[in-house]
Amino acid sequence: MFTGIIEATGTLTELTLKQGDLSVKVQSHNLDMTDVALGDSIATNGVCLTVVEKYSNGFKADVSNETLSLTRFGDYQVGQKVNLEKALQPISRLGGHLVSGHVDGIATVVAVEANARATDYWLSAPDSLIKYIPYKGSVAIDGISLTVNAVEGNKFKLTIVPHTAQETTIADFKVGTVVNLEVDQIARYLERLIQGTQTTSSESTLTTSLLAQAGFIK
Q1: How far apart are CA 193 and CA 210, in angstroms?
Q2: For 13, 84, 92, 188, which has the most beta carbons within 10 A of its beta carbon?
Q3: H or E segment at 185?
Q4: Residue 63: Cβ-neighbour burial (10 angstroms; 0-12, 13-18, 19+)
Q5: Which DSSP helix (H) or strand (E) runs through 18?
Q6: pLDDT tens sequence for the chain (218 residues)
Q7: Where would I find the H helices in 28-74?
Q8: Phi, psi for residue 134 in degrees, rounded to 5
Q9: By C-alpha distance, which of 208, 214, 2, 169 is closest to 79?
Q10: Pairing relationship of beta strands 155-160 and 144-152 according to DSSP bridges
Q11: Side-chain-facing half-sphere of 34: CA atoms under 13 Å
């Protein structure tokens, strides 16, 4: 479990096809590895990866085909800059929101606009995911916990303050940038609770009539 508060950035220094999936090596001079053990989890651009080899300045991890199918890892190149966060400890402050590191899909930056000292980023999300993204809700974009400041159709707006831009990879985003997207877990759990035993499919069947039956809307 993670908070979406990025601890450091790093660089992908190796990407190796290995028996059908991918082995990656991440190097970072700013991430404290002293308390990381083999088997620990590190969110890498929002993707929960298990440390299989550890170094003083980085780690190696394996990326499964499931992860490759849902994230941008299959398109990354050596030299790619990534956001890094070690797993949440019970004594840590929950500065962002609960992030699982299980990416739901991808989103695309469609507009970048100045907003005083901040910057507004508009992103488009798949129809299957936009319903989980409410105004003033939380999302994780490449592992960064962010607040949604507007939703229009299948687009949503994020307002990025200078500190966040400086400490993460988001300052490099431009129109056309594709990112890993994780929606708020509460929305998914709520959907499953409302559905109850009405479906066994992984496809969402949440409708306005179902919400009305559950008493969430009139």
Answers
A1: 11
A2: 84
A3: helix 185-195
A4: buried
A5: strand 8-18
A6: 898 999 999 999 999 998 889 999 999 999 999 999 999 999 999 999 999 999 999 999 999 999 999 999 999 999 999 999 999 877 666 666 778 888 999 999 999 999 999 999 999 999 999 999 999 999 999 999 999 999 999 999 999 999 999 999 999 999 999 999 999 888 777 877 877 756 555 555 555 565 555 554 55
A7: 65-70
A8: -95, 160
A9: 169
A10: antiparallel
A11: 2
> pTM, whole model, 2 decimals?
0.83
Q: How far apart are CA 88 and CA 143, in angstroms?
A: 13
Query: What number of residues does the chain have?
Result: 218
Encoding tokens for residue 16?
A: 């190796």
- Structure tokens belonging to residue 204: 């969402």
CB 67 within 8 A of CB 47: yes
Cα–Cα dist 204/127, whole Å: 11
Residue type (1 letter), 84: L
Angstrom CA distances, 212 to 19, 46, 191, 197, 201, stand at 49, 34, 13, 17, 21
* Short-list 174, 202, 43, 179, CA closest to 105: 179
Q: And the tokens for 217?
A: 């809307």
